[in-house]
């Protein structure tokens, strides 16, 4: 084909040059021909350029959550509670706490900023984002009308040139300590002007997609145009103090196709690593690591600093890399990911070990009782790992995503939908309480980033379940329901899933192509089903032979081919063809890398994607002294009556008791119960632990 093209091209040119140089043609006609040709070539060149640009994106495309219908027993109630409880409660809190009043005062240009943080505006943006996503799958005219009133208010709070930041607009002469005396001057510290903008763009994208209305989008574009006029290579310089604007700008680019937004996203990323910090200092604020500003992004190799900032930045880098083809970004986030999963990831999928600076700890610094694990960091970890999958098509990223989602992230959301954890610790001890670490969920926080972030992640969960690269169709998460997509030939295809995941490993996937079609179905075999606790070498299961997973198509076993953690079934699919899969749901004993000092001699319990923990309420009031001997047997018990319906783990523990006079210890054998970690702290406060000593000598402290 290519040879044919070149040949035709050459022939066309010889005819053309003959024509324009022919003495038979008058000069005027020759000039006209040349002009027309130049214009044609210019158009061709521009079209080729934009075609090439338009083609650059993630090699794998997620099936959007709007094409996914959820009937799942585990997720459907959670999405419904988010819609009916969390989103309304979040709007109510924004009103009750003065966040909406801030916009009213900014609109009036008078008053006094009445909440704590200048980024409190984002709680409204994030809730609008969550509400819009929810509207898209569940129309609700009342909610839509309420959002419209908020958007009108936001518009009146916006300054004529597009600037939008209530903390200054209310009274520019009296701004708080985090806000600079002029626009942007404290951006690199803590003003969050660009962070607010980023969340505004994310909300505007969601609202436009959900409703087709441009009201919020226009506010966002006016703001982005202002920012683009202020910041850039030959303009003002700054590395945003808190990342998220990069992802937001990419979304504006996706809607408008205007490259200036993509360029600005890249510019903000490339601004990092330009300030002179004290590289010898161990203090993350002095060495720049807190903001991931210690080095240019392309030379960063470790997950450091404030965890939410970090994962939002890595997500932004993935987006920009996908859209521009920048390999250096991909190399950097690949290395950072390796560092995170090999040295900085909790067994629950949580990240950000240290409370001071809400940041990643050092390598292998993963304490249990002071584990910070901000809910927002888990949300960002899901965003990041999803993007890594879309870049590389490897199931290991979904393993991390799934671990975070079902454990550290869900722990952040109370089952009532209106109480939340900001921190998600792995251990509560009676004799040790840390002021940073929460022991019960709250309805709201002075800094309420987590509850409002929850409103937007939950409706997007179905969007992580499926993906497609041409006729390669990925099934990543096991969520009952269906997904609609099109094959490369434009044939409609519906995929249906039925399972009782995460409680049961039996999964049925059926395909309904409109016409018989050749497709590769790639079904993820979770790492945990193949004897891999998590990617990396931080955690491993008690060694056992991996159980071979034998899928059946239409009831008959098929030959297995594995690729990057996926079962690949490549065949002609007819309407009604189905795949059955049985994932082993044995209870797994998980052990930590020897370098995880706090977990030496301890074991954690996992079943399917869920981590388990023991709580005082099920275990005679105390869990810090429960010893689970290595050979101890464990069993499962289904408890539909408990915590919204869970499977609990049961076993026998050895419990030491110190004699009254303190001179001797005796031990008793007692039965113990563990519940899914995400469900802890719903039945009062008390001790909780994810890791259990296997021997008495590994108990932390038994003197109290
Ligand atoms: O700074 C804005 C948000 O507040 C961060 O993402 C959270 O970690 C909290 O500090
Ligand atoms: Zn948060």
Parts with pLDDT < 50 across at least 5 consecutive residues: 1-24, 42-48
Major sheet: size, sense and barrel closure? 10 strands, antiparallel
**Strand residue percentage:** 15-25%
Structural classification = alpha+beta
**Roughly how many Å is the radius of gyration?**
28 Å
Shape descriptor: globular
Number of discrete helical segments: 16
What small ligands are held by the chains? Answer: beta-L-arabinofuranose, zinc ion
* End-to-end distance: 81 Å
Number of strands: 23
Query: Considering DSSP H and I runs of 4 or more, what fraction of the residues is helical?
Result: 25-40%
In round numbers, the mean pLDDT is 93
Kindly describe this structure.
By secondary structure, this protein is of the alpha+beta class. Among the domains are: 2-54; 97-271, no CATH class; 466-582, Maltose phosphorylase, domain 3; 587-693, no CATH class. The protein has 16 helices and 23 strands. The strands form three sheets. Strands 3, 10, 16, 17, 18, 19, 20, 21, 22 and 23 form a ten-stranded antiparallel sheet that branches. A seven-stranded antiparallel sheet has the order 2-6-7-8-15-11-12, with no helix packed on it. A six-stranded mixed sheet has the order 1-4-5-9-14-13, with no helix packed on it. A hairpin with a 2-residue loop joins strand 11 (552-553) and strand 12 (556-557). Helix 10 (245-256) packs antiparallel against helix 11. It is globular, with a radius of gyration of 28 Å. It starts with a helix and ends in an 11-residue tail after the last strand. Residues 1-24 and 42-48 have low confidence and may be disordered. Residues 119, 242, 308, 358, 374, 376, 447, 449 line the site of beta-L-arabinofuranose.
């Amino acid at each position: 084909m290519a040879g044919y093209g070149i040949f035709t091209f050459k022939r066309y040119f010889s005819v053309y040059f003959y024509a324009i140089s022919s003495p038979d043609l008058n000069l005027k006609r020759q000039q006209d021909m040349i002009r027309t040709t130049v214009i044609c070539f210019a158009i061709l060149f521009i079209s080729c350029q934009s075609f090439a640009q338009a083609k650059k994106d993630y090699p794998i495309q997620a099936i959007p959550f709007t094409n996914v219908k959820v009937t799942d027993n585990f997720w459907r109630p959670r999405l419904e509670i988010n819609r009916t409880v969390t989103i309304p409660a979040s709007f109510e809190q924004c009103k009750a706490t003065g966040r909406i009043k801030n916009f009213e005062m900014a609109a009036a240009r008078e008053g006094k900023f009445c909440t704590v943080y200048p980024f409190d505006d984002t709680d409204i943006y994030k809730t609008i984002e969550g509400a819009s996503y929810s509207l898209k799958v569940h129309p609700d005219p009342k909610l839509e009308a309420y959002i419209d009133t908020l958007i009108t208010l936001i518009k009146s709070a916006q300054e004529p040139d597009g600037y939008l930041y209530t903390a200054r607009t209310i009274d520019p002469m009296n701004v708080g300590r985090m806000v600079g005396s002029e626009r942007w001057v404290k951006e690199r510290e803590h003003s969050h002007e660009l962070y607010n903008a980023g969340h505004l763009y994310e909300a505007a994208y969601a609202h436009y997609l959900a409703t087709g209305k441009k009201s919020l989008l226009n506010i966002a574009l006016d703001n982005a145009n202002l920012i683009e006029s202020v910041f850039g290579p030959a303009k003002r310089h700054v590395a945003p103090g808190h990342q998220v604007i990069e992802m937001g700008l990419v979304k504006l680019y996706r809607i408008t196709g205007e490259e200036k937004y993509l360029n600005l996203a890249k510019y903000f990323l490339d601004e990092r690593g330009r300030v002179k910090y004290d590289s010898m200092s161990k203090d993350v604020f002095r060495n720049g690591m807190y903001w991931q500003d210690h080095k240019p992004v392309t030379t960063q190799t470790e997950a450091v600093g404030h965890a939410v900032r970090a994962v939002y930045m890595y997500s932004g880098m993935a987006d920009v890399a996908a859209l521009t083809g920048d390999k250096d970004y991909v190399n950097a986030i690949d290395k950072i990911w390796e560092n995170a999963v090999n040295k900085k990831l909790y067994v629950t999928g949580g990240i950000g070990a240290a409370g001071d600076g809400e940041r990643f700890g050092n390598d292998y610094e993963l304490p249990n009782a002071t584990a910070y694990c901000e809910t927002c960091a888990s949300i960002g970890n899901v965003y990041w790992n999803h993007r890594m999958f879309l870049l590389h098509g490897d199931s290991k990223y979904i393993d991390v995503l799934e671990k975070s989602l079902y454990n550290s992230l869900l722990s952040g959301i109370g089952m009532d939908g209106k109480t939340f954890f900001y921190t998600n610790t792995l251990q509560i001890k009676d004799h040790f309480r840390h002021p940073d670490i929460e022991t019960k969920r709250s309805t709201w926080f002075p800094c309420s980033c987590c509850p409002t972030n929850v409103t937007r992640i939950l409706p997007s969960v179905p969007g992580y379940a499926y993906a497609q690269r041409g006729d390669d169709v990925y099934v990543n998460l096991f969520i009952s329901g269906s997904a609609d997509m099109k094959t490369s030939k434009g044939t409609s295809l519906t995929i249906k899933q039925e399972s009782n995941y995460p409680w049961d490993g039996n999964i049925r996937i059926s395909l309904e192509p409109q016409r018989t079609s050749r497709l590769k179905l790639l079904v993820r075999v979770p790492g945990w089903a193949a004897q891999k606790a998590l990617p990396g070498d931080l955690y491993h299961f008690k060694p056992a032979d991996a159980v071979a997973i034998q899928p059946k198509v239409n009831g008959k076993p098929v030959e297995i081919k594995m690729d990057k953690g996926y079962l690949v079934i490549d065949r002609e699919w007819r309407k009604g063809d189905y795949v059955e899969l049985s994932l082993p749901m044995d209870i797994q004993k998980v052990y930590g890398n020897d370098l995880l000092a706090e977990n030496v001699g301890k074991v954690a319990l996992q079943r399917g994607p869920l981590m388990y923990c023991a709580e005082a309420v099920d275990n005679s009031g105390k869990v810090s002294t429960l010893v689970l001997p290595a050979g101890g047997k464990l069993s499962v018990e289904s408890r539909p009556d408990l915590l919204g319906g869970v499977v609990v783990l049961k076993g026998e523990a050895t419990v030491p008791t110190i004699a009254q006079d303190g001179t001797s210890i005796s031990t008793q054998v007692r039965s113990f119960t563990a519940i899914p970690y995400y469900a802890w702290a719903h039945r009062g406060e008390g001790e909780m632990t994810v890791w259990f000593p296997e021997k008495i000598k590994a108990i932390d402290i038994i003197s109290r």
